[in-house]
Design brief:
This protein is mainly alpha-helical. It has eleven helices and no strands. Keywords: ANK repeat, Repeat, Signal.
Length: 202
Amino acid sequence: MRAQTRQILTAAALCASVWLGGCAASKPVEAPPLVPGERVSASQFDGYWFDAARQGRWDVLDSLLQAGYPIDRANARGFTAIILAAYNGHPDTVRKLMQAGADACLGDRSGNTALMGALFKGEMDTAKVLLDARCDPNQENNSGETALTFATLFGRYTIMPSLIAHGADPNHESARGNTPMRTAQTQGNTQAEAVLKRLGAD
């Protein structure tokens, strides 16, 4: 079991490197050349959309939404606007995307959600906004990790009580047999173990 958990942690590190390569903000986005009343072709404005999400430019996102751009459109890596905004630490943009109907439960091609991205980056204000999304609190990515596992992996101890208050199971066992506690033990992370035990983990 320990070897299997170690493989899961290796997969998490790989997912992290993919995030670093694909989610980071790029050059400043310009306002899209929209004609009043125009309905846009999504592919034509993808660059504006995803760059605006990375930079938290709600004004650009809103203008494209008003022109019919699909709010949950994903790029080649499966990143949606809400995933990119969360990863880059734009809680107000994440909140407005949710209010506009964005699905915060969607994962990228590795199954990583916006909440997982925020926890990975340590964007706690954004993570708190995403706690209000109506997602399965024990939703797993392709490696069997949950949001609570991410909080354990990356030392986001302050948000762990809130995750559990929103339904995260401290004893959740993934399809691959991993639990948050096993993650902490494999890391040799005694602080995470102590936090999880206080929160009801076996």
